[in-house]
TrEMBL record:
Alphabetized Pfam families for the sequence: F_bP_aldolase (PF01116)
The record's free-text note on cofactor binding: Binds 2 Zn(2+) ions per subunit. One is catalytic and the other provides a structural contribution.
Any one of the GO BP annotations: carbohydrate metabolic process
Signal peptide, first to last residue: none
Name recorded for this polypeptide: Class II fructose-bisphosphate aldolase
Protein residues bound to Zn(2+) 1: 91, 203, 239
Residues annotated to bind Zn(2+) 2: 122, 152
Length: 311
């Protein structure tokens, strides 16, 4: 009898991502804004036989209820079926959304020590040369532990305080878009494994009244994405996945986008159900699960990706 292939507990996430990139399979990455969200993310991915990442970013800890990278890791490893998930450290900025310098290196080291499978350094608010130097340092550190690194180039706006310029103005002018020539150089000089790009996507707000509002229905410049894919040849990442029109996401999958970050829509789903149900955590978890099912089955159409990604 032919041996059934599967994603094993120890299959490196870098290997899984490369296969997804080659086969044009999207890997969803769900941000944990509150610790109880981990359970429905893990259970729903397993139920739908879909491989995905559980991830936490610095704003999830500092502005919402993820509490700490350690508490997220502890809960993840207590619950996880490692056939269907890996744990990712999202958005460790060098300069944060408030313009403050961040002591980023201890945070990266902490995640590595805690068993995170991959990490992200975000030097996108730095000049290109400095972003390259910082990212290269993180790559050298993380690769010693066989941990892949994600970095960002260009400006995926939305986390900053204050109003954004009109979206149509941002999109039509390409303000903040990842530059193709810079992306090529960045990947070559840093050795980064995955690159987060700006092609019309925006983050959800994380402060003030705006954090509770629905996101703009963003579009993606697919022609620009094609050029970045050709120039870099590595898995590309789409931040600000909540609210992007499904048509554009399906096109992006065919043109290098391998990982999509989903934070705002599941966070707001959790918060709204808590408010509606008098803080019933189980009901909020069920609402998150239903939202994830809708994204995976209806919008991204990736149900069953685990079977195609078996390595």
């Amino acid at each position: 009898m032919e041996k059934i292939k599967m994603i094993r507990d120890n299959t490196p996430v870098a290997e899984i991502m490369i296969k997804a990139y080659q086969q044009r399979i999207l890997i969803p990455a769900f941000n944990v804004a509150y610790i109880p969200m981990i359970l429905p993310i893990i259970e729903t991915l397993k139920q739908l036989r879909t491989f995905g990442l559980v991830e936490v970013a610095r704003p999830d800890v500092e502005k919402f209820g993820a509490r700490s990278f350690k508490e997220v890791a502890d809960e993840y490893f207590r619950l996880a079926d490692r056939s269907f998930t890996r744990l990712h450290l999202d958005h460790i900025p060098v300069i944060d959304e408030d313009g403050n310098k961040v002591n980023w290196e201890p945070l990266i080291r902490e995640a590595i020590d805690l068993g995170y499978d991959s990490v992200m350094i975000d030097g996108s608010r730095l000049p290109l040369e400095e972003n390259i130097l910082v990212t290269k340092k993180v790559v050298e550190l993380s690769h010693q532990h066989n941990i892949p690194v994600e970095a960002e180039l260009g400006a995926v706006l939305g986390h900053e305080k204050g109003p954004l310029p009109p979206y149509e103005e941002l999109f039509s002018t390409g303000k903040g878009f990842t530059k193709v020539d810079e992306a090529k150089r960045f990947v070559e000089e840093t050795g980064v494994d995955w690159l987060s790009v700006a092609i019309g996507n925006i983050h959800g707000a994380i402060s003030g009244a705006a954090k509770s509002r629905d996101k703009i229905q963003a579009r993606l410049n697919i022609e620009h994405l094609k050029k970045i894919k050709e120039a870099t040849g590595i898995p590309l990442v789409l931040h600000g996945g909540s609210g992007i029109q499904p048509y554009y996401i399906l096109q992006a999958i065919q043109n290098g986008i391998t990982k999509i970050n989903i934070g705002t829509t599941i966070r707001q789903t959790y918060e709204r159900e808590l408010a509606k149900s008098n803080n019933n955590i189980k009901k909020a978890q069920m609402a998150v699960s239903e939202k994830i099912k809708d994204l995976i089955k209806e919008e991204y159409k990736i149900e069953g990706s685990w079977d195609r990604l078996a390595v």
